[in-house]
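Consortium newsletter contribution from the modelling node. Members have asked for a concrete example of what our holo predictions look like. Here is one, prepared for the 2-acetamido-2-deoxy-beta-D-glucopyranose complex that several groups have been discussing at recent meetings.
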Amino acid sequence: MQCFLMLIYVLLGFVTEIGGSSLKPVLTGPSKAYLRSQVQFHCEVPGWASPLTFELRKDTGDLIRAEHNVKVTFRLQVTEGSEGKYYCGVTGGQTSNSIQFHVVTPVSGASLSSDPDPPIRYEGQKFTLRCLVRKGTHLSFTWYHDQQEVNASSDHYRFSGDALTVDAASERHDGTYSCTAQNMMEDNPRYSSSRNLRVIVKKYMSTLKLSFTVFWNGSSLMANISCRLARGSPPVTFSLLVNGLEMDVKHMDSLEFWSVWPVSLGLDTGLAQCKAQAETQQLLSDPVPLHVVPVGGAVRVMVKYLHDADAVTTAARLTCFPDRGTFPTFSWSLNRSSLPPEGDAHVVMQNGRILFLTDISSGYYRCRARDSFNDSSIWVESEDIFIQKTDLSATPMEVIAVVFCGFLSMVIVGASCFLFWSSKRRNNSCKRCINHEIQSDAIQSDAMPMNFPADVSFKPQTNAAIFATDSPGVAAQTAEMVLTAEHEIHGEESDLDPTPPTLHIPKPTHLHPLIPKPTPKPTHLHPLIPKPTPKPTNLHPFIWIQLRPPDLVFCIEVLLKLPI
Ligand SMILES: *[C@@H]1O[C@H](CO)[C@@H](O)[C@H](O)[C@H]1NC(C)=O
Ligand SMILES: *[C@@H]1O[C@H](CO)[C@@H](O)[C@H](O)[C@H]1NC(C)=O
Ligand SMILES: *[C@@H]1O[C@H](CO)[C@@H](O)[C@H](O)[C@H]1NC(C)=O
Ligand SMILES: *[C@@H]1O[C@H](CO)[C@@H](O)[C@H](O)[C@H]1NC(C)=O
Ligand SMILES: *[C@@H]1O[C@H](CO)[C@@H](O)[C@H](O)[C@H]1NC(C)=O
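And here is the predicted structure:
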């Protein structure tokens, strides 16, 4: 019997050797395992039901173990040396498939390193963080920025192995970073997390501004000079220069700095400048004259009327301009009684410089100004300005015509009028004149530019409004309103230009308040002469008016008819 079995065995071995695949063993088992864990490899010949002697071999053929059974299990303790290529075989038979086995060291001791160290960078510079581990193999890394996981597909970071790289740092990259290293194992993955590392991305400094306020300290007038950076990262070293001389230096943990210096009222102390210095950058502010001019001279009031869709005056903005004064404070009165800063129908803005009448109470308005830093300084007052609510749509056409045409004809010399008069267009012009007289709105419509934007609801009467609203007032007011009308045609609010108008207002001595004296030499300052602007803006009503001969002729005719 024994002999028979042996024969079969030998025969089979022979078959195996000659025939090949029928006795090919198959090895199964893990491809990786933690160090010091136990692993099992299984070996069998599929479809073979008799016991065989299986040998587990490694790499170049070192026999690890041999077992005799139908199918066998090899239990191994994983050590540092366990890594390698495993296969099994049956005695005298084929060898199995091989399994590349990896020993995985559990991760521990994760920490962060940075390049540069410490991680302080300016905008646009590069930095790299690495997630280092004391021990551990087969790792994957997860990054956290301000406790939020960094998306691996983020455009703002570059990942490679244990490194996270930012090629051009920006404000968004500033913050704390940490990483977690993890063994890439399906079962029982191990983690190790680093501590937080603060990455500072510094901003470049920009827009250094100097400003100053004054106060009375009991015995002298003091200027509090402040320097402020719109952008940057502290610390910053600020210096105050007066006429180029360094007066004060401070290392600040903020973006602003101030310094107090005595100044003399009315005396130009010099030009003050701020300097801001950071590691890689130095900025200088624009120079500001340290000159405190006391409030003085005449006080003027600029009026802007705002009209509703029906051209009815609904609101007015009065702005007060003393001739001089660096730190003025203002107060307003109506019919000689002072107006509180807050009211049902008005508000004051900009230290009181602007009085905004939300609901116009007719009457005489007046503004006064004095030095804000001296409670005993003398008030300087404007003249009375009569303000009233007007319905512009009811304005007589003659008034419009006089104002509109009066200037054109007086300013543009008679010679040119005569030329037009005698020109071939005379007949046409006359027809137009008649049309104008019949159809009162026509002047305004003709004055409209062809390219006027369709979405702006311009009221034909608005040009007239500028003059007409003034009728009960003084000539000075006319000029003011004309000057400001360009901003107000559509009732839009525009930022106040802080520079007072250069226009000098004629004294209200003229008999007819609506017709200013003809200026012999028209200058660009005159509000009613269209400026020769190459590109007319939508806002300026006077540039729209095209000086065509027919209009001119019409104007002269109207003027001749009117008894002034
Ligand atoms: C990461 O970003 C991709 C693409 O921007 C997005 O589809 C994905 O949902 C994000 N994942 C996380 C966790 O925010
Ligand atoms: C006011 O400022 C001047 C000049 O710096 C100084 O001499 C004076 O002591 C100050 N007075 C008070 C009350 O602080
Ligand atoms: C000077 O002005 C700054 C603000 O610009 C302010 O914080 C500071 O208190 C002022 N100093 C004095 C002495 O008034
Ligand atoms: C101010 O005076 C004018 C003219 O005397 C008068 O018409 C107007 O009603 C007065 N306004 C107020 C609010 O008292
Ligand atoms: C304040 O104004 C009064 C009156 O004009 C003047 O006499 C005084 O010198 C001024 N004080 C300062 C500090 O300018």
